[in-house]
Give the backbone structure.
Amino acid sequence: MPGQPVDALLAYLKSLDAAQLATVLRNRNDALSVPWPAHISDLATRLTRYDSVMDAYARLTLPHLEVLGAITLARSLGPSVAVDDVAKWLGSDVDVVRGFLTDLADCALAWSAADGNVVNAFRFPLIGTRLGPPLRTVLEGATLSALRLVAAKLKVRGDGTKLEVIDRLAKFLGDRNEVIELVDDAPLDARDLILDCAEQGADIEYMDRSAFGGRRAQFTMRGDWAVDRGLLWPDGQGSASMPLEVAVALRGTGWRLPFHPQPPAIAVAPVYVEHVESEAASRLLRMLEVTSNILDGAAAEPIPLLKTEQVGVRAVKLLAKDLGADVEQVTLALQLATDARLLDPLPPDPPKGRRRKSAPEPTSTGLIPGESAPSWLAAAPDERATRLLDTWWEASSTPLLDAKIAAELRDSTAHGMVRIHLLEEYARVEPGTGFAAPYDLTPLLLWHAPLVETEHLDPLLAGATKEAELLGLLAFGTATSLGRSMVGGGLDEAVAELVSGAHTTAVIGADLTAVVFGPPTPELSRLLDRVGTRESGGTATMWRFTPDSVRSAFDDGATAEQLLDGLRVIAESEIPQALEYLINDVARTHGKLGVVELGCAILSDDPTVLLELVATRKLAKLELASLAPTVVASKSSAAEVISALRAAGYAPVQRPADGSVQVNAPAVSSESADSSTLTDDTIAIVADPDRHARHLIETADSAPPTAATTHDLFQALRGKGEPQAIWHLLEGRPARITHDGTTHVVHSPSVSGQTLTAWSVTTDRYEEFPLDATTVSEFHPSEGETRARRA
């Protein structure tokens, strides 16, 4: 994909008004990564970078790719390209092509210049057909001696410089009539081979005459006649291909590139929609419950991580069992909570002793609630739900995708493209209709995302569909109000309306069940989950009360009075006597027996010795407790107790297992799970395309800032504050700048002379700071200073 000069794109960008440039910035939002482009020339450079162009190219629909390919073909066959030329090669109406060209111009990939010619940022490949490289590209790659041999066979002058020979050969082989006449005069077998290569666009196996030390010249090969006359050109790697102009000439005047301006029609089916919205609310609120319960559990004990810093399958299954949830719900909730920073990795333990340089970096062993978890848990249900939906919409992965495929598609844009197009297609059909199966959408998604590998499309589609269903965006084969608002706008209002219809009461029956006929609120679910066992979900959710479930509530610290009062509040009628009897019966027996968690027991036939141990101050760290006249217990291990007793002058021995108390090791201490030690020194910096476009247009005629390396910028700022803060600023992270008694949070710096220019988050514009009166310091945002915005 050889690129065009940046100057051509810069001239186009300068011809746009602020609104048009803002559209380009929205479509190419990678150009607004920090540091933001301070000048329009910087923007042009960013937009012509290969990775930026490929990112935009990968998000185009099939007809857009076909138009770009037609531009490449037309440019290869003529000195200039007009919209009419592109339309001719696509066999389409000019107005149709012009509409797609307008979209490409909004992405700064191709546009019409002032003289009417089409300009493209890169030469893009042709889609749906196989054609070789342009003729001049092939000729320029050949040696002069090879060119002269071809010229001799074609009876074209081969004298002069290489450029002169190339010009003569390009003129001859680029003439359709000359090529057709040449092929008509070819031997029958050679003519069949040439025409087959032209129609199929396929290479042939071919060894150059210079191969095998020149011995190849002693025998003939299929394709020699065409190679000798420049109709096929060997690549030196065992094959030969036909130049683009030759193939087009031989395909005939009626040949056209494939073009699919309209998406394929997909059959829709009627859907029973009476319970769609209640099902959506039930599923979304259930995801809130699962996520909240995961955070509560992580606060008590970190969620274990594998060495890859991923939650293992076994841990997910245990969580699902403990929470009474599906494995898919837990998997999705874990990923969303991690992406939303509701869960953060537990800081790894520092290495013991001197660490070798080659030793691997320590990894986290668990997940604990992040800094934003408390505020999320305290927020209203609709706010929590919106945060989860936004996180899923912007996710760079598909949590429910098979691990192997997920590894192959790491950092791929396919995840977001499939997710977006999936919901858009469901939202596009009329309410009351949907698709029989998500796989019906495969042809449509291939039209929208033609560069997605087809072998991974079905798994991606299945994973994204299941996630959308768990979040209430899809239900019963159709889009819900949430799904439609996700792509059409108004998500906050849709979530608020859906959540407001959640039930706050339940029908409690004498059969020791509680039923909620509709989506329950998170608070109602939490109460019933605490005292009962969930047996079903969906349109109606049922809990069953059993001695075990009530006992579990008492284990969590509840009392009979608290449980009965809570159930009376949510019950639609009086609590059945059977349930009161059950709760009171369990309360009477609960706690009659006590089990103490111990590390080991000290046994002796002499009670006096054991009393002496308990009273000895030197042994206080063992936390000895008398359980019986001949038994003293400690929370320390047997080895620690034996060592301490011997240091105090005693001579204990370790008895066999049948003479000691064996219990599980204590759980991870709450200190290790203290999330208050975690800090978040990042801020979500979201550029406003409209505002930034206005800035670039207003400053377009000014001289661009002098390009400087990171080292140059650091040297200019050296000694102007904290070195770590200066590096953070140059890496694209925000920092505080104090100047003239005021403090700004800034990013995107540049230096000109003795002046630092940076974007001030505080004033929402670029500010200039004299270096001799500027101090740079670290920025640690508070909760109120952190910004987050949904695109």
